[in-house]
Amino acid sequence: MIKLLDQYTIDKIAAGEVIERPGSVIKELVENSIDAGATAITIEIKEGGMSFIRITDNGCGISKEEVPVAFLRHATSKLQTADDLLKIASLGFRGEALSSIAAVAQVELITKQEDALTGTRYQIHGGKEISNEEIGAPLGTTIVVRNLFYNTPARKKFMKTPATEGSYIYDLVCRMAMSHPDVSFKFIMNGTDKLFTSGNGRLKEIIYHIYGRDITNNLLEIHAANDQVKITGYLAKPSISRGNRSFEDYYVNQRYIKSNILTKAIEDAYRTFVMVHKFPFTVINFEIDPSLIDVNIHPAKRELKFINEPDMYDFTYISVRKALLFKELIPTVTPGKDKRPETLAERKVEKRPEPFETNRRATELPPQPTRPAQQKKPSMPMQPANSGISAQPTPTPSVTMENRSSSPVEIQYLKEDNQSGKNITNNMVAENIVPYLTQPEKTALNSAEASVQTNETSEQKKQEPITSEAKIKYEQMDMFEDRFLTPEAKKKHRIIGQLFKTYWLIEYEDKFFIMDQHAAHEKVKFEELMANYKNKTAIPQYLMPPAIVSLSGTESEFLRENLEFFQNLGFQIEGFGGKEYKLSAVPANLFGLDGRELFLEFIGELSENGQKQTIDTFISKLSTMACKAAIKGNTSISFKEADILIDQLMKLENPYTCPHGRPTLISMTETELEKKFKRIV
After folding, report:
1. pLDDT tier for residue 376 given thresholds of 50, 70 and 90
2. DSSP assignments along 407-447, one per residue
3. Which of 100, 152, 416, 619 could cross-link 18 (Cys pair, CB 3.0–4.6 Å)?
4. Interatomic CA distance for residues 593 and 193, integer angstroms
5. H-type helices in 71-117, by residue range?
6. Cα–Cα distance between 106 and 146 in angstroms, integer?
7. Given this model, what pLDDT does residue 461 score?
8. What's the pLDDT at 281?
9. What distance lies between CA 122 and its chain's CA centroid?
10. Does residue 134 surpass a pLDDT of 60?
11. CA–CA gap between residue 609 and residue 620 (Å, rounded)
12. Percent of the chain surpassing pLDDT 90
């Protein structure tokens, strides 16, 4: 018998789709705060958010008449008509969050608008209204959620431990802080401050507070734009990689999402920069015309679709790749054990006042010594952007950001006429994109104080416009200053010798470099093979007499489907009757490898899985081919050969890692050596 469910059951079922765990509550409420124009948001939880959640903001608030309506299903101020779904600019839009939360928890809301004399206190438990009364309140909204899932024990028993749920919420708040650097976030867990951001718009400072100095000092800035997409944010150098995608964050219109297209574009751009099964660190924001994306495909709004996915992939791939190729990426090693990362429980954050308490303090100045203690100076105007920052003066740091080595450079791209590149629709991507510098490099953070504060003079210098002469001078200096793999730097190289018949030691200024001869030569061979494949310029070496090979039915079918790939590499093969094939030529740059055996190995491994082959599969096999053709470790080569190998590295697109992601060069400073020998204490 078909029966219509009652509203109480409907609300519980709907709440289960939107509210999965305490983190879902915080996500929905914080998004509402951001949509309300809040510049300071405080999140407080107890017992992993199961017993207590409080969200306080300084947004526009809700009028008294609209408070009960806000807790009804599908009640929202973000949409007016169905056409608005085609151009969603807000984080929330379905009108399900408050209704879903109220259905499975005990909720108390206190809100006040700017022009209202008093605020409103509204309580609703399990979807049933308890009270609605006037109350004195500051500007903004505070929502308290108690006893989450108290009336749905089946859902509650599937929650993890409070510590685990708290760690999920911490990660969520960190992502929201990185996606909205202009909003001040404060996160309190069990009475302890875990995170505080100033809301000054500086993403790099937030990354420093969350991930620490090591990652922050290895960031590369990315900045690219075309008619429909703008990309900003930071990438980490390949030396900062992890065994999972937990550090691979990107945001579309300030919304944290997961997209197979963007993930593949980023990871493909990092290919050969990081080792296999390693993933990069990224914090990238994509600003896209809302009409070109659809975010209404997942209850939690974690997924979206692009109108033109191939163009989005191409533009992201090229932008990330150019940002990586523009920098010298030789890792500097420090002998000794790596520092253990700081855990969430060990993180200490300075106590900060609530946003509304900060506003009150900002309107009052400390009394002057010559005046009575009760007398106060006239109030000062509030600064909304800094509403989450204590009004107390902060000492000037002893080390400024201007005193250290340079880090990321803002990169823009100029589209040029493309004679040989492919034509991409909608003018989304130009195949040949030329990077150029637009401003001097920003400096790296070197201490907790320097990460949060910079002196006024330094800020003024950053904001001054750059003249064309200064820009040209800076470009010339950056191209060759402190770069190891350049013709100018090579004149100062002093090759010391070979170590363990595998590594070459090279002195350059106040550093010494160690080159892995196998990894370096492997990369040279790989890029040579890739260039031959792309340009169809492989030089064949003819076999006299030709080799006759026998292929299975699967291998024969695979060869017919992918014959062009083998021809572009330099193989020449044709049918010889039945299952026999005549191999007339092999690539000329195999350096003694048996071309016939290499061909059989290639076609055997590529065809055995029976799946459709992609260019990624062939590139993987090219890296194997390059590895086999390269000089091996534990092999003596002469000084002249090592010098030629360095010359070849300088001509490569990415000379810093082999095709499998291992570094070709590492460096160590003179200072580090002196520390090891106790010359410097």
Report:
1. very low
2. ----EEEEE---SSSPP-GGG---SSEEEEE-SPPPBPP-S
3. 100
4. 62
5. 97-103
6. 5
7. 40
8. 92
9. 40
10. yes
11. 15
12. 25
Q: How far is CA 125 from CA 51, 104, 111, 122, 326, in A?
A: 14, 8, 18, 10, 57
| Residue from 139, 166, 168 nearest 59 by CA | 139
Structure tokens at 371: 């005046």
Q: In what order do the strands lie in the sheet with 665-669?
A: 494-499, 503-508, 511-516, 665-669
SS (H, E, C) 509-564: CCEEEEEEHHHHHHHHHHHHHHHHHHHCCCCEEEEEEEEEEECCHHHHHHHHHCHH
User: Which of 446, 444, 445, 416 is CA-nearest to residue 429?
Assistant: 416
Pick the range with the lowest mean pLDDT from 197-211, 289-303, 307-321, 459-473. 459-473
User: Cβ–Cβ contacts within 10 Å for residue 244, how many?
Assistant: 9
Tokens of 652: 């490569």
Are residues 326 and 224 in contact, defined by beta-carbon separation less than 8 angstroms? no
Residue pointed to by tokens 């108290």: 150
* DSSP SS3 for 323: helix
Q: What is the DSSP letter of 8?
A: H
Task: Tell me the pairing of strands 282-288 and 279-280.
Answer: unpaired
Position 402 scores a pLDDT of 36
Using a 10 angstrom Cβ sphere, with 0-12 exposed, 13-18 middle and 19 or more buried, the burial of residue 86 is exposed
Q: Is 301 exposed, middle or buried (0-12, 13-18, 19+ CB in 10 A)?
A: buried
H or E stretch at 166: helix 162-179
Of 432, 370, 387, which is closest to residue 140 (Cα–Cα)? 387
| Contacts of range 467-473, beta carbons closer than 8 Å, 24 or more positions apart | 471/437, 471/438
Q: What DSSP letter does each residue of 609-656 carry, written as one string?
A: T-SPP-HHHHHHHHHHHHHHHSPPSS----HHHHHHHHHHHHTSS--S
Find out whether 46 and 166 touch, Cβ atoms under 8 Å. Answer: no
Interval 45-57: pLDDT, tens: 999 999 999 999 9
- C-alpha to C-alpha distance for 38 and 31, rounded to whole angstroms: 10
> Hey, CA dihedral for 594, 599, 600, 602, is it positive or negative?
positive
Rounded CA-CA distance 478/437 in Å is 9
Measured distance between the N- and C-terminal CA atoms of the chain, rounded to whole angstroms: 83
Higher local confidence (pLDDT), 397 or 598: 598
**Please, what's the b/e burial string for 462-500 (b: 16 or more CB within 10 A of its CB; e: otherwise)?**
eeeeeeeeeeeebeeebeeeebbbeeebeeebebeebee
Q: Give the containing element (helix H, strand E) for 494.
A: strand 494-499
